[in-house]
Each structure stands twice: as structure tokens, then as C-alpha cells.
Amino acid sequence: MENFFKWMSKPIPNDEVVVWFSVHNMIPERIELYGDIFKSLHQIILETYLGEESSETKISMSDDDKTNHFEWCWKTLLDNFAKENIIIKHGGKHKDYFQEFFKDTFYNQLDTKIRSTIPQFLGEIFNMTKPFTKSDLDIMTELYKCMEKNIED
What is the pTM of this model? Predict the structure, then answer.
């Protein structure tokens, strides 16, 4: 198991990354766009989320409230990108992916340290200038293929 983790976290040479992108028909500009979509959604969620119950209030968000908040943020994201003539389909695997990601890492995450690492995680996954690991490429490829099917040309 230890060897597997080492293999997954070992940086891949740049020439192999270029081959990976070519084999998977991944275009760097599209990778950047999909990263911007992911980061924009995170920013909308972060800026508009009312938060959890605190000592000052006894109001907490129910699961329905969290789902409704995500839906509102998703619609806002789609509207914002549509203004730039980037049309993202409303429903599909891509939305499910984003919703599950934010449900696990943001809405239902009790550890604020984990919540605070989301921007760093997104920055590392979509940073085209840093060395990639196998894990990075797997995540990016999954998201890329998911988005490719749901962006209208």
C-alpha cells in the first residue's frame, strides 16, 4: 500500500504529462476554463453561505437549506458564464460532481481546516506550471471529461 501512495504522489515528468494530455484530448486552455468554473463556484458558495450555528445565533442550515443554497449558487454560476458566452448545461454528471464535492468538503465538513484548504486544492489541481502527480492527472481528467460533455460549443 505504501508503494501505491508513493506512486500516486510522485511527480510525473513534463513530457509524460504532455503525452497524457494528448492521449486524453485535453486542451490546456480548456483545463484553465474548467478550473475557473470550479474556482468561481467555490467563491460564490463561500461569499453567500450563511454559515453554521454559532453561539450568537441558534439558527442552523438544514440539508434542504444547503441543497437550495447550492442550487442558487449553481444557477448564479451558469448565468455569470453565460454572460461571457460560455454555456454550461444545467444538469448532468458535472453538476452532480460539483454538488457532491462541495457537500463533502464544505457544507457537511465540520473541520474548518479542511474547508479552508479548498482554494489550495483547486489551485494545485489546475496549476499548469507545477509538476503533476498521477493523482492530480486522474482528478483533472475526470473533471475535464465530465465538463467537455456539458459545455455547449
Answer: 0.86
